[in-house]
Amino acid sequence: MNGRTQHRSRTHRKFERAEGTVLVLAIVLVLTVLATGSAQAQTFTTFEAPGAGTGAYEGTIAISINPAGTVTGMYLATGNVGHGYVRAANGTIITFSAKGAGTASDQGTFPTSINTAGTVAGMFFDSSNVYHGFVRASSGAIAEFNVAEAGKGKHQGTTPVGINTAGTITGTYKDSSSGYHGFLRTASGAITTFDAPAAGSGYALGTKPIAINAAGTITGYYIDSSQVGHGFVRSAAGKIASFDAPGAGTSAGQGTLAIAINAAGTITGAYTDSSNATHGFVRAANGTIITFDAPGAGKNGWLAWLASKMNGPPDQGTGGFSIDSAGTIAGTFADASAVYHGFERTAGGSISTFNAPGAGAGTLQGTSAFAINTARDITGTYIDGNNVLHGYVMTP
């Protein structure tokens, strides 16, 4: 995810608005090498969703992958309209759109996660740019849902982000003041709302859940009244504990962003320090936090700060986006030239980096890794030299 480049104003603005997806792409920064390694031999399979646009800032975006290797994500058609897709491990792709999704620029359907059963959670923007949640069964049936307290104004509403094996969904809703709150929706449709105890209230403040594991433990972050981010963990019983990565800044726009959680309760994400440089972290279930940086990650805090002030995507540093049951993290880093690269970090701290074939080498081009499954298959998106987006799956 006012002086923006076209890349920022289209592709990344799309991610800013699709809250859950935003959270995934809007944290690409980090630095502090624990251990490094060279990339091992991998197999890349690239793909395009049928109907994906082929112009600049159009194309296919891969967001989530389940244990069977089924991928979900969105594609941006000509006119910058979003549609969902599911790609089976054999390469078969089915596209879909939620009923009621808008068809104008920056509207449409935006899947954010897929579980073991192939159930997809996501959101859609209607013709008035209001957000609504949806659940798509593996059979293709789509059900819409909304949190009762969600606002009904432009860029308000319900935004599902994570789904677990039981079909329980977590995410965010924006109220009528455009403040953020968390919700939990069971497979039967019962919805519970919650807020982190120290979360701010009002415009752009509040609680943002991102991921949920099989036990029902949720992680995410909240923005306090000073606009500082803090990580949190919410147990299945509803108890919420907050945390901050060592070295996280305490000024507006700084702090800790928790992004993913595995079955053991290990969390990964990113934090921004007092110099506006961003770093990755991994937090064990007992609360121990280790920070890390991908080798080659950019360090220019001023450039990262400038990008944030322009509402553009991060252009320096590293961020962990997904973690598997063994503690292996998949993520993305941006180098000193603001080119993106994927990385894989083992539980032992060894980091290997990779680039998808065909990825561009210009500013805000390159490879982003968004999700990893139990087989260590990684999926994500790369942007080529013409700024067209493509999906990929990398197998070990």
Give a verbal description of the structure.
It is a single chain. The chain has three helices and 29 strands. It is mainly β and 396 residues long. It has a single domain, classed as Methylamine Dehydrogenase, Chain H (7 Propeller), CATH 2.130.10. The strands form seven sheets. A five-stranded mixed beta sheet has the order 1-26-25-24-23, with no helix packed on it. α1 (6-17) packs across α2 (19-25). Residues 1-40 have low confidence and may be disordered.
Compose a concise summary of this entry:
This protein is mainly beta. Helix content is 7%, strand content 42%.
Q: What is the strand tally? A: 29
Count of the domains: 1
Radius of gyration: 18 Å
Q: Structural class of the helix and strand makeup?
A: mainly beta
Main sheet strand line-up: 1-26-25-24-23
User: What kind of assembly state do the chains in view correspond to?
Assistant: single chain
Mean pLDDT: 88
CATH topology: Methylamine Dehydrogenase, Chain H
Q: Which ranges are low-confidence, i.e. pLDDT below 50, for 5 or more consecutive residues?
A: 1-40
Q: Helix count, per DSSP?
A: 3
- State the CATH architecture: 7 Propeller
* Overall geometric form: globular
What is the highest CATH level, the class? Mainly Beta
How many angstroms separate the termini?
Answer: 29 Å
Primary descriptors:
single chain, 396 residues, Methylamine Dehydrogenase, Chain H, five-stranded mixed β-sheet, four-stranded antiparallel β-sheet, 3 helices, 42% strand, globular, disordered N terminus
